Amino acid sequence: GQLVESGGGLVQPGGSLRLSCAASGFTFSTSAMTWVRQAPGKGLEWLSTIYSDASSRYAASVKGRFTISRDNAKNTLYLQMKSLKSEDTAVYYCAKGSIRGQGTQVTVSS
């Protein structure tokens, strides 16, 4: 399988971004999909998982600010991020099990 993230960039504190993850090579619609991130000098942090029935879970650090969603017709995973903070600066990855994409950089700075 392959995962390709996009949508990162530089945003001011309080701003919003939507990340996308294009999936291929596996049955996306039946797969649980996850977003994780890695801030500079830190380990991987789990953010959110969405299941095949569209139910989802969130880490406390992003709950209420981030929304995970999926479009099975497009084999695409999304992460809508709002009220961004400087501490959200990281490389964001989508993942299916041990498969991860190359990541997309999100920088929150004024």
Q: What do you see in this structure?
A:
With 110 residues, the chain is mostly beta strands. The protein has strands spanning 2-6, 9-11, 17-24, 33-38, 44-50, 56-58, 66-71, 76-81, 90-96, 99-100, 104-108. Helices cover 0% and strands 53% of the residues. Strands 2, 4, 5, 6, 9, 10 and 11 form a 7-stranded mixed β-sheet that branches. A 4-stranded antiparallel β-sheet has the order 1-3-8-7, with no helix packed on it. It starts with a strand and ends with a strand. The model has no long low-confidence stretch (mean pLDDT 97).
Secondary structure: elements and pairs:
Elements: E1 2-6, E2 9-11, E3 17-24, E4 33-38, E5 44-50, E6 56-58, E7 66-71, E8 76-81, E9 90-96, E10 99-100, E11 104-108
Parallel strand pairs: 2-11
Antiparallel strand pairs: 1-3, 3-8, 4-5, 4-9, 5-6, 7-8, 9-10, 9-11
How many DSSP E strands?
A: 11
Shape: globular
Proportion of residues in extended strands: over 45%
Q: Number of helix segments?
A: 0
**Uncertain residue ranges:** none
| Residue share in helix | under 10%
Largest sheet: 7 strands, mixed
* N/C terminus separation: 37 Å
Query: Which class do the helix and strand fractions yield?
Result: mainly beta
Rounded average pLDDT: 97
